[in-house]
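User: Predict Alpha-galactosidase's structure from this.
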Amino acid sequence: MRSRPRRSPSRSDLRVIHHLRAAGVSVVVDARGAGVPVVLHWGRDLGPLDDEDLAALAAASTPAVPPSSIDVPFRLTLAAGLGDGWTGRPALQFSRRGDTPAARAARAPRLRAVRERREDRAEASALRMTVRDDEAAVTVELDLELTAQGLLRSRATVHNDGVEPLDLAAAGILLPIPARAGDLLDFTGLWARERRPIRGPLRDGIHARESRHGRGGHDNAFVLAAGTPGFSFEAGEVWAVHAAWSGDTAVWAERSALGPSTLAAQELLAPGEVVVDAGRRHTGAWSVAVYSAEGLNGISDRTHAWVRSWQAPPPRPRPLTLNTWEAVYFDQSLEKLEPLIAAAAEVGVERFVLDDGWFLGRRDDRRALGDWTVDPQVWPQGLGPLVERVHAAGMQFGLWVEPEMISADSALAREHPEWMLGRGGDLEWRFQRALDLSAPGAADHVFECLDALLRTYDIAFLKWDHNRDLLHARAHAQTAAVYALIDRLRAAHPGVEIESCASGGARLDIGMLPHVDRVWPSDCNDPVERQRIHAWTTLLLPPEYLGAHVGAPEAHTTGRTAATSFRLGTALFGSAGIEWNVAQTSEGERAQLAAWADEYRRRRDLLHSGRVVRIDTDDPAVVAHGVVAHDRSEALFSVATVDTPAAALPPALRFPGLDADARYRVAPVPIADGPRIIADQDPPWYRDGGIELPGRLLAETGLPMPLLAPEQLLLLEFTRL
Ligand code: GLA
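Assistant:
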């Protein structure tokens, strides 16, 4: 199965087919010969294959030469382009500055293999394939890594070995997908409506999703999945890609008329945005590719396990958080917040976060971004008294910042007008500009402001916001700069947690994730929307990263009124919190919140470590999902109606993911005033407060659910007997 690792063999030595295997996935890469390596297989585990088998696989993968085509069998290489006879969209594109059109044409990349290196480590098998275009004087390293969880990462590094600068148009890798992966899923969205699925067939041509927001954007494709017809959470084979980058991105699926289909995810570069000077190199963003033979649940299984294997996962337990935004908006003062602190402590909040409105001159969203000192008019003694009160009430203190931005009406802009991206004619967005983090001194200045705040006050958490699109072809530099800025701050203040927020969920991706501890999936706290938003966000991100707050009964963003139990139950399945003026709630509501907070504390270990299982329901009005402990000893499931259920006798709901050979006690978990049920008589098991059933039956025949009224949530716990 393993071939010998090789060190810089000469070109003629390259005769190796690599078989990478992990967690039910095989990747076979033919790196023999002088051409760019080819992925012969990315998908289901092929079992152990010896060199002879691999050679046979390569032979069997060689196609015919069709009429009116190149005169050799077509090979879809990792860097396929015109030089290989690939007329589809290339993932790797560059041009030499100063070339005449003729020279440029001659230099359509003609890459030849130089060497490959393989390293098998516990966490991943890594292949680095070096290819070179001698005439263009460009060397490219193509990295493919199959992690222990079966996730395939890839990226390209382009070296400029020439004299003139090199303009990069694309720096990524093409992955092949089989013809049966003809069904596509990706996402679009709007503010407060992030990650709306788009489904459709993969037709001849390109299905491409490009983000030019300078952040993922509310309509970010997020994941592009191609699968067997009708693939779902529980069923079908799926090949999915994600661009692990928080700036502009391109993801696409292409079916060529020739036959082969490809999938790619990479950073999207604007013309001239990335120029590689002589002797320098540029490393493209990682593309994360995941195969699953068990539907979309298999995709989240792999990504969650991988993310959880990182060196610095978010500290656990994840504290119950209260954020002041929807409670008071800009109306801040110690007097106003004291009752909120008291009520938060009463219901069991563990972290109190002061949102936008605390800094110099910030009375509304029209000014003051950049002036990161405490406003003495609102906070005459600084934030000290507030922080003290929060600590005295037994909670941590957190603070909102938006460090990458600047208001035209700010002391900072008056002092450094040159730090505003697109000075003068640029469009404002939420009355603000982006701060040019690569302008000399700008990033240092922001660092010093934040560093001073973190030194002055005992701050456990920063909600790091980003409330506009860049609208400027500087996304690469800006994104690299924000990663560096966050990392510098974290190095200086290792205990401080950071949340990535961007007008809600416009910047949550696997590029940002290693730099932060939490993401804010949406400004919408309406549970109907949150059920959907979380269903898709957890495709990649584990629930412990996802801020999930209980809002007011009437959602501020939609005006929809939701039952307390629906709101509480929905917020339980994330990094839970409250976005509601609990000082203005009734004693009864606070008692319900306190009971829910206890429930969260009791179950968060399971919720933040277990396997996320989403159920394919027969009725789209029913959203059902759960978290199953890795040893399958327990699970918590949520069954919610996001619309009016279709049937008076809802079909039995199956609960997959449990231990088929064990028996479980299934019992409803009371939450606030419980779900509202429309029935003259509930199913007996429900009336009796639970039932014992074998896991196999729960997965196959299921349980009849009580008929939930629209917009209700039923919580069920499963305990192995
Ligand atoms: C953005 C965030 C909100 C809130 C406001 C404050 O919209 O998404 O949660 O912090 O900014 O201005």
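The chain has a mean pLDDT of 95.
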